Amino acid sequence: MKKIFYSIIAAAGIMVTATGCEKYLDVNENPNGPQSVSPNLYLASMESNLALGVQYDSRFLGKYVQNFVSNSAGDTWDRHGYQAASDNSGQQWRSVYWKMGINLQDMINLSLAQERWDLAGIGYALKAWGWQSLTDYHGEIIIKQAFDPKRDVFDYDTQEFAYSEVRRLCDSAMVLLNRTDGAISADYAAKGDLMYKGDRSKWIKFVNGLLALNAHHLSNKSSYDPAKVIEYVDKALASNADDASVPFNGKVNDDTNFFGPLRNNLGTFRQSNFILSLLNGSVFGGVTDPRLALMLSSSPDGAYYGLNPNAGYGTLTTNQRPNTLWGTAAATTVGAGKYLFNNDVRFPLMTYSQLQFIKAEAAFLKNDKATALDAYKKGIDSHIDFVNQYTSVAANQIKAADKSTFLGKTAIVPTDANSLTLKMILLQKYIAQFGWGFTETWCDLRRYHYDSNVFTGFTLPASLFPDNNAKPAYRFRPRYNSEYVWNAAALKVFGGLDLDYHTKEMWFSQQ
């Protein structure tokens, strides 16, 4: 029997394909067990694993973008490095190619055969989301040959192709989600759909949001069309009620938010000086942001401090050292946590405020300052509401009067559209994506090549990882145990074996 190895799932174990192995299939000829499942039952696991993939990898990417940093000096990821011979930072790879992988295609095929157009459309939307997230994270990825059972090595596709494939899949999703015939059923889809409970209208908005992301990332290219980006956003999420997110019940480890104290994955992580500077008035005209106390953690002395990458606690006294992201003095597995770092909160994948900031930037680049200002203000306004949604104690939530006062500060929201700046848009977007939108934040930083004139106060560590050759990271290396162990020849073609491969600029960020 010939054994075929899927490069993309080798790390999870060897999968022996059915090709040329009729007897292997006999294990499914069990009269007491099903040989196929209802397509709606695939959804919950795939959606939750998309969220978990982002969360797992955020332990590394979150340090690249300085949402948070290590509480000790010399951290590899603080310095934009990587861990050789390790699968750390490869969880999204695993989620897309294995956790979804053939399962997703099976769900789509079963749905099409049963004329469940809505479920098939959701499947195409998830596939598009997976490719978009993965190519923005890794650059070149495997698409055309990914699930070919006749291969034991897999050629990579360009990022340009990946972007075009996302658009193609979004178009297919849109066609199917708009159909009204066949066996479409919101109740049926809802049994597995953790994100939108089978609501096709929200999935259509989600697909438009994904198209907006896809189109907007090309802002450095001559083909960039800001009007098209604005059009997509206007058809996308209409309010916070349309936010795409995945729930966790917070009762047992396997169904608890990866960021919560129960799972204790972030005990050595602390908020960065950069995010603190955006909320404490250092950057925005001395205006303290009412979101500060709800998003960040104070120190034992009651004040707020942040850490710089690769510096540890520096000269901070014990009472000045910032508490954990959960608001506790030390790592713990008990307690509720706070904001997005709680046990039972939903983890966002796309939000209304995020898309409003994308619209604001697109309009700004189009020189439509009035539209830019309107979207910018809606982005801040809706994110304040978003923060309140993630603040479980009602008494601590931002009051309407305080929100109005804050939005009335010209250092935050100019009264004259011509006073709006690009950095205001990008920095407020950074705030709105803190703790969840890691890849999109990184796309912004890379589109502007880590420019401190845009990202005021963002400073790369003086001592970058030795393999970087003094360059910041622009991509993550593919998952080690599947690619560097089994598929190294394919990596060599485009420089994937180079020690500084992770510093190679992305296609989308180039002109």
List keywords for this structure.
single chain; 511 residues; mainly alpha; two-stranded antiparallel ribbon; two-stranded antiparallel sheet; 6 strands; 3% strand; disordered N terminus
The global form is: globular
* Number of strand elements: 6
Can you give the mean pLDDT? Answer: 93
Structural class determined from secondary elements: mainly alpha
For the biggest sheet, the summary is: 2 strands, antiparallel
How much of the residues is beta strand, in percent?
under 5%
Question: Topology of this protein?
Answer:
Blueprint: H1 43-64, E1 68-70, H2 91-113, H3 117-138, H4 159-177, H5 186-190, H6 200-216, H7 226-234, E2 244-246, E3 269-271, H8 273-279, H9 292-295, E4 337-338, E5 341-342, E6 347-350, H10 352-365, H11 369-389, H12 400-407, H13 422-433, H14 438-447, H15 480-486, H16 488-492
Antiparallel strand pairs: 1-3, 2-6, 4-5
Helix pairs in contact: 1-2, 2-3, 3-4, 3-6, 4-6, 6-7, 7-10, 10-11, 10-13, 11-13, 13-14
